[in-house]
Amino acid sequence: MKADFIINGRRESLEFDSRATLLEVLRNSGHREVKSGCENGECGVCTVLLDGIPVNSCMVLAASVIGREVTTIRGLTEDDDTGLSPVQEAFAEAGGIQCGFCTPAKVLVTYSLLSRNPQPSDEDIMNALDGNICRCTGYVKILDSVKLAAEKLKASGKESRKERGK
Question: Are strands 2-7 and 69-71 parallel, antiparallel or unpaired?
Answer without folding.
Answer: parallel
